[in-house]
Amino acid sequence: DGIVEQGTQVVMKNATRLCSTKPIVTINGKFPGPTIYAREDDTVLVKVVNHVKYNVSIHWHGVRQLRTGWADGPAYITQCPIQPGQVYVYNFTLTGQRGTLWWHAHILWLRATVHGALVILPKLGVPYPFPRPHMEQVIVLGEWWKSDTEAIINEALKSGLAPNVSDAHTINGHPGPVQGCQSQGGFNFKVEQGNTYLLRIVNAALNEELFFKIAGHQLTVVEVDAVYTKPFKTDTIVIAPGQTTNVLLTTNRGTGKYLVAASPFMDAPILKPKLKHLPCTGPTQDRPLLVLHRQPRNQPLRHLREREPRGGRFQQRLLRDAQDLSPPGTFLQHKRRLHRRFPREAPGDVQLHRHAAGELRDDERDEGVQARVNSTVQLVLQDTGMIAPENHPIHLHGFNFFVIGRGIGNFDPKKDPKKFNLVDPVERNTVGVPAGGWTAIRFRADNPGVWFMHCHLEIHTTWGLKMAFVVDNGKGPNESLLPPPSDLPEC
Ligand code: C2O
């Protein structure tokens, strides 16, 4: 009937990986958490009951949340967290959206274990724009730390040093088989010869861009971030934290076992290389991992159809990432908090920052970037990092944006816009800004509210690679934020 209800208990659960056991925060005792299935235009009601000692909030990554910012989830941005013992019902509609998205905790580092896929099927009777797959499989890539992740981040914040890198990568919660540990095989996926499978791949890792590959097979990318793409054949996909990629896999090789591997693009910090336990299944003498680092980083993805991102007059900003050098007054400055407290305001007022800002110290103040409702916003995200060679996967809440251009070096406002793709640019919610390069995006600010934008490498968000857009209410019929729900948590 178009309504999907999901009961969600936040509970501690002991989990054993890499021969050791620790308690983790989970949803319904599962790691990764349950996959939520829905259809385009469905209304989703998720009742979250917090049974753990941590404050919790859940973000529906990639869900537009048209006029329902109260259900978006980032703690202290659009809601106060759900405190121990409290309950909150996330209530939102998947208006015009279908594809693979995901959900995750959006507070502290809880998303290390609190995450899962959100699969939105097309409306009944509407086919995929590619041959119907024989079967579908969700693949959630993650990271695993032997010790407690909240302790790790708290420690790092105290010492000012980078947090420990994870001890393993996981596929659907499993690292690869570990010698000497009982009943800890990797993730296995049984397929039959001659079929086509749709893999819905989510990178839920906290801090690492990953390569994903299946030995001996080609993959055809057909969708990213729940938007169809022109089919793109590749043998390796690159997927950043926050991104989702749907690929078709045709099992056109002989029977046998094939290695499935997720391997890091790079491990931070580079000075302390550490051989990590990689998740894999199949014969390990087949070692595709070693060559992966030479693969091109930016796959030329295009929108399935021609889409004209609105041109004409737009608000343009050049935002600089000051993550490594932190010159004052630049993009995504090192701010610990956008604001600490989120007052319950009348729906007419979405300028939430203003109210909160007064409580912050001057250097922590952030007014957010104002955008008029239904205006077109163009951003050039410039990476100025000179130390870290990693891309920054920048995620915008509340919108999909068109990726109209990217390049290496400094953005040239005279030359570079001439090369923008305004015909069939890929549409996403999370895009990699290349190290030492730039990415240009455009979106229509058609969703009033406060929308977080941040690097999806969790440690970078922690360090302050984040900001928010404030889209004001307009006068038109669909131009204002709906009233907050009565159970919206208070701080
Ligand atoms: Cu997937 Cu603000 O996050």
UniProtKB/TrEMBL annotation:
One of its GO terms (biological process) is lignin catabolic process. GO terms for molecular function: copper ion binding; hydroquinone:oxygen oxidoreductase activity. SUPFAM superfamilies: Cupredoxins. Its cofactor is Cu cation. Transmembrane segments: none annotated. Keywords: Apoplast, Copper, Glycoprotein, Lignin degradation, Metal-binding, Oxidoreductase, Repeat, Secreted. It catalyses: 4 hydroquinone + O2 = 4 benzosemiquinone + 2 H2O. InterPro entries: Cu-oxidase-like_N, Cu-oxidase_2nd, Cu-oxidase_C, Cu-oxidase_fam, Cu_oxidase_CS, Cu_oxidase_Cu_BS, Cupredoxin, CuRO_1_LCC. It comes from the Eukaryota. Residues 10-123, 137-266, 364-474 form the Plastocyanin-like domain. Pfam families: Cu-oxidase, Cu-oxidase_2, Cu-oxidase_3. Gene3D superfamilies: Cupredoxins - blue copper proteins. It is found in: Secreted, Extracellular space, Apoplast. The keyword 4Fe-4S does not apply. GO terms for cellular component: apoplast. It is an enzyme of class 1 (oxidoreductase). Its EC number is 1.10.3.2. PROSITE patterns: MULTICOPPER_OXIDASE1 (PS00079), MULTICOPPER_OXIDASE2 (PS00080). Belongs to the multicopper oxidase family. This is laccase. It comes from Senna tora.
